[in-house]
Amino acid sequence: MKFLWFVFLFTFVLMNIGHSQGNDLWPEKVDALYTLDEHVYRVEKETKAKYQVHQVIIIFNKDGNQYANVHISEDNFRKCKEISATLWTLDGEKIKEFKTKDFDILKYSGGGVFYEENARQRVANLSHNHYPYKIEISWEMEHNSLFFWPHWLPQRDIPVLKSSYTLILKDAHFPFKSYPLSDSLTASEQKIGDGIRYYWELKNIPPKKTYSQIALPPDYGILFAPGRFTLGKYQTQWSDWKDVGNWYNMLTQGRYLLPEEAHSLVEELTAGLTSEKEKVAALYYFLQNYTRYVAIYLGIGGWQPHGAGEVFRKKYGDCKDLSTFMVALLKEAGIEAYPALTPTRDAISLIKEFPSNQFNHCITMVPLREDTLWLECTADYLAAGDLPPTVEGVNVLVVEPNNSKIVKTPVSKPEENCWKSVIRGSLVGGGRFEFQGDIIATGNVAWKLRNLIIEIPNDYRDRFFQLLLSEQAASSDVQYDTENLTENYDKPLVIHLNGEARKFAKVSSQRIFLNPVMFNAVDYDDIPDEEKREKPFYHNYAFINEDSLILKFPWNYRLEAAPDTVSIKTDFGEYLTRYSYQNEELVFYRRFQIKRAKITPEEFDEYRSFLNQVYKADKAMFVFKH
Amino acid sequence: MIPTNYHHKWLFIFMVLGLVLLSSFSFGQKFGKVPKEHLTMTEFPESPESDAVYLFDVGEMEIRDDFKLQLDRHVRIKILTEKGKKFADVKLRYWHEDKIRNIKAHTILPNGKKIKLNKKEIFDEQIKNTKIKSFTIPGVEVGSVIEYKYSLESEYLTFLEPWYFQHDEYTLYSRVSVTVPPQFSYTIFYRNIEALEPQVEEILRPGKTLRKYTWEMANLPPVKDEPYMRAPQDYLMAMHFQLIHYKDAFNYFKFIREWPDLVEKHWDGLDDFVFDKSQKDLVAQLTADVVSPKEKAKILFDFVRDSIKTTSKGNRWVEKSPKEVMKLKQGTGTDKNMLLVNLLNLAGIKAYPMLISTRANGRVFENQPRLNQFNYLLAYASIGNKDYVFDTRNRYCPVFLLPTSDLVEKGLVINEEKGKFITIPIPKKINMQYCRTEATLNRDGSLNATSLFRFEAYEAMKMRSRIANTSPKEVFEEILEDRFGNFEIDSITIKDLENVEVPLSVEISYRVPDYAQVVGDMMYVAAPFMDYYEKNPFTSPQRYFPVEFATNYAATDKITINLPEGIQPVELPKPVAFRMKGLSCLNNWKQDNGSIRVERQYMRRKLIFFPSEYQRLRSLYDHIVNADQAQIVLSEAASQPTTSEQ
């Protein structure tokens, strides 16, 4: 209570100083900012801690309203004791007050560490319709496990004028570890009886930049972890990654057991297969078809999976359930396999120096004699050993008994992710192009297409190609059939198509205007904005697109104008076009390759220029005159 | 005991057969007893594209002795494809004061094996006043049948649970029964159903006889979302139930029967607000020098719109009185409109609250007097024998327009004379974007241009709101990037941003590098239309429901392209005109000395296009896209230009 009074007085002063400054608080125009962001964590003992948060946010416009959404997570280990919030005008006039009862309780299935842990969120939308306005919010949590020790991550995607983290240990010798994300953070210390108080503070924190396809650690903040903790009936300490792995093994003990029915099934599925690789592929394919991925809502990060027997019965589970089931199936077939905990590429990259809970996903590693296969058990339509882009090139913790270690997952090469199309046809009246042809796709390209074709609603299936065709071919009616769509994922996906692009060419009485790029045209939106880049830029994956178009013209058209053929080669990408026109037949070839997913900051300008050239070339027209 | 007499023997056989038939029928729908043909079927010929089929959806409602409503529902679904497995993820939404009990669910595999849902696999969620029971039925696979049942208990009897016969997948059979004690009398409203006679049976209970009404439908196609479609629930076959009266030996309670009853009840709560006199002096001050009622209305509308903050849209209920709203200087859209009604009356203008159902909420059925059809409140006034409707919630909405969400056919005026339905006047103003562009084409293919935009009516409202949320530069950067890709803005000037009663004018000067394609001594360029279709918005080859627009729309582009010296047009696109009832688009290109003048006029007056008109509409847009991208061919000192067909 005293704390809240202090907070109130402090805020009162702060608000009256700041109330007239409005958007002058930050040199650039922003949708919102934090004027205050305070965190206090009091550790009483291994099974008791208090966490208090106090924030003041100014919302300047409608886009800033997203920061007025409050979500406070709770479960049986973390209870929210009190929440209060007030809306103010910048002139200091109170608009509205909120108490704990005004926050809705969003209960959701699953979540928490142990599924039955009554996971829920306290939610409220505190937005106002008249701008600018200020929100002041405070809440207090009681933790009965230090597993949930909060990090201090003061950098957000809007500016923070002042952020602080106070750590109070009742016992000054209570073990904990911290990992600063930048060198400039030092704590002030103060002894309080047998205890100790640490205090960190930062001011004028710029917003963190978001980068495509990958998340990097914020520039500021401190990660915390207890030296030891108790969670439910499990007690442990995490001094290294082996400890973290052993803890996960403790949680999964006894959960790899399969019922008798599953034993016979494994035998049946692997009968007649001689190599381990074939057996892995067969069991992985079985898992993809037999089970469904049901995500844990809101990603609180439950750690303990359901048992393999339960997953077998229910036929669904989250990433760690399905990995557990996969490992159990492989063990049954006599093949060694391990769960691998990982942060996905869109979450913060693993900090290897800080063994702790940094994971939001689980895959499976199968160490064969001559190869290592990685299995993403939540992905359908993927071959055994292929990984989706979200877990390519990431550090994972392979959980082996007493030997857990960090390993980096492989990154696919461009020649593994190929698209090749060959389309032939004729231009008929009114600019219509009647065509047939094939598309052959491999690797991540094939996976993306399989997902698109299989998951698209049936009513929209005829419009599936709208999603692939360039603008000039968008008014098309296409029929298609496929090979290796729902099986043989290790083989290329082949799409046989035929159809009609109703307005492929623009036709006048004397001329035909034609852009022959039917697929994969680079759009202006694909070019990242110009900026002084400090961090790398990432594609999903390296790839090669090759498109050939063979188009027959009506009789007696000569080529009046053609764009220059293009050949660009850089360290990170290549682009090539060439054509010929003979006997009223245009043969056009385009090749676009991104050689690697990562573009360095030093290459960024060159990369933009490269894409600009490709964009311009992809827009260019051929002109034929009668 | 088998009878020996011949006649009795046949009677006995018929009775046995009848019992067998009845039991077959009930066997077919008994929980866990799925007919073999449903278990083994692998496709559904009546709807080959379906991912799943509702084999049945059965509801039994009863008003119990304790005067609570109980709905027992039983749903059975056949899973046909991988995508159909999602039907195993069930969320039952209900009012937070109601209760859901006795949830049972399982999957039945084609071989008959059952995988049951455990109680601990059922989770509770809550968002505001809605509770949700959510669960995933275990063991589902392609070819399996899933079913679930539950009981809902509610104390609310005025409106029973509505019954929707159709779903977003094919429904083989749907049935609802309602059993009521004789004291209760309900009226039934049918939606999208012509006539459906119930079966009626008497149910004998100790000391009383109940009546059970049953409606059933079979072989119902799905109703799915389509673009430019209003609320899907407008199209579902459904039934709604409303209590008329309760009558027993000692009591008689009348509930809502006709619109006048409903209006009278609603008026009781609102009349004080309508005639409150606390703002008399304010109104006198605001309208001091004004005589015309229309002018007074405008002044008062502007005052409420601009001086009172809108906290949220609101619903059909007034949360704060006009006096409170004036004190706090804020209120919901509903509160603000109620305040306007009050102020108008104080100014001597007859005004009343009007209830509407906004576009997304679905249409109101006038033959179904139900208050819960409405979800918002507007201000209605009669001025000089003309009807006016006002909504003060949007800062950029001028006085005689309504936000597009309010553009519905009718509203219900709540007054002391039993109320009336008023047709909401269609805004007379054409919703328009006008653009005049003066451009210079350079030899390198770049284009320098100045475009002067004028936005009127809804286009102005939309543009002002957009600019207010970001900045003029950001808004027009987005517009030009969508249109041209690569460009640079030199300057932007805006006129009348805050004056919502007049059109919004914006002048932009910009440059587009690589606008024209230059090949040797030839140049190919399309006109830089600002109202421009890069692809046909109607992609589906078929349409089941009308295409609906909220407002009319017109766009005019007048462009002058000044050519570089020595460059002449070789070929100009021929003028084109595309028309169908309620929609037209005309494009014209003309040479004028060293420039080319292009004019494009698009006009859509019609708001609804029926499925029978869809193919024509789609084809028309194909032509419009083609004409918008038509190429002008230029060359060095060419001969007289020719015009070309499109």
Strand arrangement in the largest pleated sheet of chain B: 5-4-8-2-1-10-13-12
Q: Tell me the total number of β-strands of chain B.
A: 37
- Percentage of residues assigned to helices of chain B: 10-25%
> What is the level-2 CATH architecture name of the largest domain in chain B?
Sandwich
Short summary:
The complex is a heterodimer of chains A (626) and B (646). Chain A is α+β, with helices and mostly antiparallel strands and 626 residues long.
Task: Note the main attributes of this structure.
heterodimer; A: 626 residues; alpha+beta; Immunoglobulin-like; C8orf32 fold; Jelly Rolls; 3 domains; eight-stranded mixed β-sheet; 37% strand; B: 646 residues; 37 strands; 20% helix; disordered N terminus
Strands, helices and their partners?
The complex is a heterodimer of chains A (626) and B (646).
Chain A: H1 2-18, E1 32-45, E2 48-59, E3 69-74, E4 78-89, E5 94-98, E6 104-107, E7 120-125, E8 133-143, E9 160-169, E10 176-180, E11 188-192, E12 195-205, E13 222-226, E14 228-231, E15 234-237, H2 241-251, H3 260-270, H4 276-290, E16 292-293, H5 308-314, E17 316-317, H6 319-332, E18 338-342, E19 361-367, E20 372-375, E21 395-398, E22 405-408, E23 418-427, E24 433-441, H7 443-455, E25 476-483, E26 493-501, E27 505-507, E28 511-514, E29 537-538, E30 543-552, E31 558-561, E32 567-569, E33 573-582, E34 585-594, E35 598-599, H8 604-619, E36 622-625
Parallel strand pairs in A: 1-9, 16-17, 23-30
Antiparallel strand pairs in A: 1-2, 2-8, 3-7, 4-5, 4-8, 6-7, 9-12, 10-13, 11-12, 14-15, 18-19, 18-21, 19-20, 21-22, 23-24, 24-26, 25-26, 27-28, 28-36, 29-35, 30-34, 31-36, 32-33, 33-34
Chain B: H1 6-29, H2 36-40, E1 52-63, E2 69-79, E3 89-95, E4 99-108, E5 114-116, E6 123-127, E7 130-136, E8 145-154, E9 163-164, E10 171-180, E11 184-191, E12 199-205, E13 208-220, E14 238-247, E15 252-254, H3 259-274, H4 280-286, H5 293-307, E16 309-310, H6 322-328, E17 330-331, H7 333-346, E18 351-356, E19 376-383, E20 386-390, E21 410-413, E22 420-423, E23 432-441, E24 447-456, H8 457-469, H9 472-484, E25 488-495, E26 504-512, E27 517-519, E28 522-526, E29 547-548, E30 553-562, E31 567-573, E32 576-580, E33 583-592, E34 595-604, E35 608-609, H10 614-628, E36 631-636, E37 642-644
Parallel strand pairs in B: 1-10, 16-17, 23-30, 31-37
Antiparallel strand pairs in B: 1-2, 2-8, 3-7, 4-5, 4-8, 6-7, 9-14, 10-13, 11-14, 12-13, 14-15, 18-19, 18-21, 19-20, 21-22, 23-24, 24-26, 25-26, 27-28, 28-36, 29-35, 30-34, 31-36, 32-33, 33-34
